[in-house]
């Protein structure tokens, strides 16, 4: 293990608490990280998935589909249920379909959407459960998180 003390850089107090007080590299830990490194292509696909989910309207659409009694909803029912216009919901569904999160089927002039699989259902359920946990506050309190694009 190689160690050296950190310099007395001038950092904000929040940033300083996020760093080790001493730089200590543990070769066996570094090797474990390298062995389990997520390939860049997988990281990019996963980041794109989470980027698509980073929209309150799309999440409301997905949760409506998650709880749809028949497992699917038409655009008109989704729009009416969410209090939005059909074109807004249709646009969000197109984005979700492009990313492979929802699928559609046409019956005459009516278009129905559903979640593509159980992975999406589990992701939504786990995301909601995690967001409902306290993060240094009371349940249901969301802390502001900065996300860089």
Automatic annotation (TrEMBL):
Question: Which residues are the signal sequence here?
Answer: none
Tell whether Transcription is among the UniProt keywords: yes
Q: Which residues form a coiled coil?
A: none
InterPro entries reported for this sequence: ArsR-like_HTH, HTH_ArsR_DNA-bd_dom, Metal_resp_trans_reg, WH-like_DNA-bd_sf, WH_DNA-bd_sf
Domain HTH arsR-type positions:
38-135
One example GO MF annotation: DNA-binding transcription factor activity
Q: Could you list this entry's UniProt keywords, alphabetically sorted.
A: DNA-binding, Transcription, Transcription regulation
Q: Name one Pfam family in it.
A: HTH_5
Q: What is this protein called?
A: Transcriptional regulator
């Amino acid at each position: 293990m190689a160690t050296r003390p950190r310099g007395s850089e001038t950092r904000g107090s929040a940033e300083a608490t996020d760093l080790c007080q001493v730089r200590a590299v543990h070769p066996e830990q570094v090797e474990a990280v390298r062995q389990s490194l997520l390939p860049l292509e997988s990281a990019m696909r996963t980041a794109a998935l989470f980027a698509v989910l980073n929209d309150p309207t799309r999440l409301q659409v997905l949760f409506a589909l998650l709880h749809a009694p028949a497992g699917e909803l038409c655009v008109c029912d989704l729009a009416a249920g969410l209090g939005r216009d059909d074109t807004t919901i249709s646009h969000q569904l197109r984005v979700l379909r492009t990313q492979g999160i929802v699928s559609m089927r046409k019956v005459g002039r009516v278009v129905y959407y559903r979640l593509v699989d159980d992975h999406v259902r589990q992701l939504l359920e786990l995301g909601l459960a995690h967001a409902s946990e306290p993060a240094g506050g009371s349940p249901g309190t969301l802390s502001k998180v900065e996300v860089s694009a």
